[in-house]
Input
Amino acid sequence: MRRFLAPPAFLAGLLLVLSTAPAADPVPAKAGAKAGEKGKRTEVPYRLTDTKHVMVRVKLNGKGPFNLILDTGAPAVFITKAVAKKAGVPVTEKGLSDFEKFEIEGGLVVPGAKGRVEDLFQLDGMNGMGLAGVELHGVVGYNVLAKYRVEYDFTADRLGFEEIPGFEPPGFVRISGGKGGQGQLEMMGPLMKMMASMMGIKPNFAVAPRGFVGVEYDDKDGVVITKVLTDSPAAKAGVKAGDKLLEVRSTEIETAKGLTRALAKAGVGTRLRVLVKRGSDDVELTIDLGRGL
Amino acid sequence: MRAILALALFAAAPALVVSQERVPAKKLAKAEPVVVPFELLDSRHMAVMVKLNGKGPYKLIFDTGAPMNLINNRIAKDSGVLDAKNKAPAGLFGTMGQKKVALLEVGPAKLENATAVVMDHPTVAAISEALGPIDGIIGFPFFARYKATIDYQKREMTLVPNGYVPADAMEALMGKMMAAQNADKGPKIVGPAALFGFAVDKPAGDTAAGVAVTDVLKEGAAGKAGLKAGDRLLTLDARWTDTIGDTYLAASLVRVGRDVVLVVERGGQEVRLTVRPVRGV
Output
């Protein structure tokens, strides 16, 4: 099974794109820019997907946000046909389409951004199996990344995008020789989709909020309620400051982490059976989880 | 627009996992920057010179979109990463699986006990055929260990070790493929990492940016910071909150006791509020 699954997994996860399409869109390199000059820096929030891809969110012509992977292995921005349709991006047969507005989360509007409308087989494959844990809509490649000094640091929760004053990245060159395209890999996307359906995989990317309790606690010695917020579900259920959590949903609670785990699947409207120690008594309470964060 | 909002809600799943993995496993005593030059190929890929176990140099593509390092069978055997006499049967595209590389050098950057997948990747081969020998890819398991700044103007990458220890993406990928079959089919429940003390809503048909703040608990962290019912929450910690799901995902990444900015629209004005969420649920 591993031998059978591994190559498609490698191929789908690896976002290396060779495209002859952007060749029709040359941008001359601008000379005379002084290297190393400091530019305006924008902090861009990101997430690592389950597949360890660096994902940012982008609003395209005001629509979205869409989930794009930062990919120096791609020559340009690529977006799926479905995204192009939603954002009203015209599809060009050869070359790149113009975006009216390309805004990266964190407040970075990329001037004059263009991209290729094309369904990459890697994204099809990952989405078909839900491998990334999130639906992917495209990649941000060279033509946008090269405009910035991009700082990656996975111990921080922001990426740094610093403008490079006066620098225009060299344009595309027509590549001669080679087989071109993806080296006959285009069948991988459909293949992975087929495998997904054969294996009974139907990815669900939906997200639902956890239910709201309405207590503050400290967890120095077990989880002890320090404050019950007025009108909260906890207040209505009769939780009192000083109560020590013993059990939530029949799971023993010793640490804050344990509490988080016990609540991991408790959505809004869940009826929570809670056992607390109050003075020398064990008190059982029922909390109807509400909406809030 | 409904469809787009639904899509945005779908978007968000991996957040909880991320916040836990972001903690560096060890602190480094001293962090010296290393500068790695790169070549900009005509295909507009970055190429770096790489040595494996002291052998080489080989030219590889540096790819932030690659969850693993990858080398072809030729240099795997040449460098001894793969025993030249190895007769084990290969998978599709000559796949030999993930192998240990005792010493991986990318320019002047040295990394011990690295890993690389051995595979003759068709796209690498296609680029190689067009632009001269290219023998693999350097990806996440390498650059994740550094604060890495890429400068296309200077054609160089500056690396400062940051103590981050990347989880094995290949194992995660394979595990995910195996687990995908028996996965929970319901939506993923996302909880905030700390207590803010407010509620939001977004009725069907509401297509404007942000979500409506419906309730604010007065003695909660957000209430104390001045958040009011009726505000329109646009961002939380610089992350867009255009759906209820996105609001929770943004909150799931904010740890207890850290100041975060909430941007709200109130009476046609954008107001920035600084909130320090507390330990609670």
